[in-house]
């Protein structure tokens, strides 16, 4: 058994929240290992539901933890620890241990840097690059956050490169404070010193500004390495053998969001491997006239949901065109909760992805 159209070394599963994206990533990991490929499933989902479906615990933090699967290939699971990843990057690109320790001790780094907009997303792609570059797995399957956060995740390398190439870094590295911690006017900046420090102290807090300035100064030797790594991550996500699996929920209300994501992927140079419409309600017949009121009400509701999902699938098919015909996966009585059920789901998905 092979993964057919999804037989790629890197699969990135993207989509909105509540569409079963994490479950499908897990299912693909199981069938990939069953096919004999050493596979790693990574998730950056804050709920960390993946560890429950795959039978791994907190050991799957920043290191890979084995799933209890008897298969020709190995199946490991990893959850993101953004701060540990950031710390490793600092150690890698600092010119010496003292420079790294200077960054680690900075309060701005300890308290703020790990939660600033874009940092967590960039640490996610950095962790992905670490794993991919080691070559320990024949396939890596990445489960990303919901749609808007996933777009942040995909754009994180571009934002890092753009920031490091912008004038913001030069501005931040200007000598705003002297060795005594007093505000001073850097050369080339037409600012009056009198009253400026008091104003900054009232509006922002001079102590915080000093620590931010120290952070950028301590971080300066690392910029070259970060820029180089961000460019490598950007190239990894755009490689021809990296495929994106776009997962959507059923119904016509999901069509606009799915099309928006598909177009953003194409515009960014990413390769769309498949579009999956998950949790589709079955079409049911109209209840017979002699059915009880409760049965008629229940079947009428199911019929309405089935018609809604059929209409949404038809609209999405027409908009995507023949190159990316969406695959429908039916809503199951119970969500997969163990490795055996995940394997069944994964095999069903692969069967539906095969050309007719």
Q: Could you please describe the fold and organization of this structure?
A:
With 356 residues, the chain is of the alpha/beta class. It has a domain at 4-83 and 128-151 and 234-353: P-loop containing nucleotide triphosphate hydrolases (Rossmann fold, 3-Layer(aba) Sandwich). It contains 14 helices and eight strands. Helix 6 packs across helix 11 (223-237).
Summarize the structure.
The protein is α/β, with parallel strands linked by helices. It has 14 helices and eight strands. Helix 3 packs antiparallel against helix 4, helix 3 (82-93) packs across helix 6 and helix 7 (147-165) crosses helix 11 (223-237).
């Amino acid at each position: 058994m092979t993964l057919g159209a999804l037989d790629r070394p890197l699969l990135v599963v993207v989509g909105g929240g509540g569409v079963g994206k994490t479950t499908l990533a897990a299912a693909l990991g199981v069938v990939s290992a069953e096919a004999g490929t050493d596979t790693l499933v990574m998730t950056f989902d804050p709920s960390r539901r993946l560890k429950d479906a795959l039978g791994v615990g907190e050991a799957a933090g920043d290191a890979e933890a084995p799933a209890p699967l008897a298969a020709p290939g190995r199946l490991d699971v990893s959850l993101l620890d953004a701060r540990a990843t950031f710390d490793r990057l600092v150690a890698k690109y600092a010119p010496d241990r003292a420079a790294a320790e200077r960054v680690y001790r900075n309060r701005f780094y300890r308290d703020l840097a790990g939660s600033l907009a874009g940092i967590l997303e960039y640490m996610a792609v950095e962790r992905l690059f670490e794993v991919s570059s080691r070559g320990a797995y024949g396939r890596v399957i990445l489960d990303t956050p919901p749609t808007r956060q996933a777009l942040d995740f995909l754009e994180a390398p571009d934002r890092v490169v753009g920031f490091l190439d912008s004038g913001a870094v030069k501005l931040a590295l200007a000598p705003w404070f002297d060795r005594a911690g007093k505000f001073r006017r850097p050369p080339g900046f037409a600012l009056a010193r009198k009253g400026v420090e008091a104003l900054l102290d009232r509006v922002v807090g001079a102590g915080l500004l000093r620590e931010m300035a120290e952070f950028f100064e301590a971080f300066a030797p690392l910029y070259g390495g970060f820029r180089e790594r961000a460019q490598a991550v950007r190239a990894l996500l755009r490689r021809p053998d990296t495929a994106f699996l776009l997962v959507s929920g059923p119904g016509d209300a999901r069509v606009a969001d799915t099309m928006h994501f598909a177009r953003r992927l194409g515009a960014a140079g990413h390769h769309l491997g498949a579009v999956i419409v998950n949790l589709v309600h079955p079409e049911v017949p109209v209840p017979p006239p002699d059915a009880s009121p409760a049965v008629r009400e229940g079947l009428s509701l199911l019929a309405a949901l089935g018609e809604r999902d059929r209409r949404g699938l038809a609209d999405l098919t027409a908009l995507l065109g023949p190159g990316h015909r969406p695959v429908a996966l039916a809503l199951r009585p119970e969500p997969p909760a163990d490795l055996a059920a995940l394997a069944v789901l994964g095999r069903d998905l692969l069967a539906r992805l095969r050309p007719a």
